[in-house]
Amino acid sequence: MPVPYDDTGNGQFRPAHFHLLISAPGYQSLVTQLYFTGDPYLTTDVYAASSKAKQRVLTVKPTANNRKLVSFDVTMTENLLAEPAAIDRLAGTYLDEKDRNLKTEFFKRDGQLWRKSGRVVYGINYEYIGNNTFAQSGLPPGLIRTYLFEPQADGSVKVTSTNIDAKGNKVVTVSFKKP
User: Fold this and answer.
1) What is the Cα–Cα distance from 99 to 48, expressed in whole angstroms?
2) Where are the domains of the chain?
3) Which of 47, 49, 98, 135 has the most CB atoms around it within 10 Å of its CB?
């Protein structure tokens, strides 16, 4: 079993959890975290305490051969897909318009757009929601993270990132990928 850990170094512990990535061509990828009943940090963790996480808190059952068993059913849905050529054009490294040292890197996997993240080994999947906009799914209620891509006349691509936290604070940044 995984163990709880201090995520920020200030005593705010994350409950024990597994990160899970399930993907299949033609279906929305699922990136999620699975938690376990009885963990004392479930109620204080912003991700585990969300109403959507309740269905991902699993009961650990002992088996006859002295092992532990958990069960998590998954139903995959078909994608609202952006055109493959569009994903190819959006993939790449974007530099923040105010601080060129801040980079965001997008890549293509299974025909979908993903963003590299230093804390997540396999990246973060973004669902196409229409109008050149991609959204991160699976966030706790109130949290929103979207990217609006706008091809420019010079061949570059502008991306506007909008992040809204649980308190409603909104941060908007703009980055560009050069041709």
Assistant:
1) 34
2) 5-69, 84-177
3) 47
Q: Which residue has the tokens 């979207």?
A: 146
Cα angle 12-15-19, degrees, rounded to a multiple of 5: 120
Beta strands in the chain (DSSP E): 5-6, 13-14, 17-22, 30-36, 57-58, 61-62, 68-69, 92-96, 103-109, 112-117, 120-130, 133-136, 144-151, 157-164, 170-177
CATH class, range 5-69: mainly beta
Cβ atoms of 111 and 87 within 8 Å: the answer is: yes
pLDDT, tens digit, 9 for 90 and up, residues 125-162: 898 888 899 999 888 888 999 999 999 999 999 999 99
Q: List the one residue out of 149, 171, 147 whose CA is nearest residue 161.
A: 147
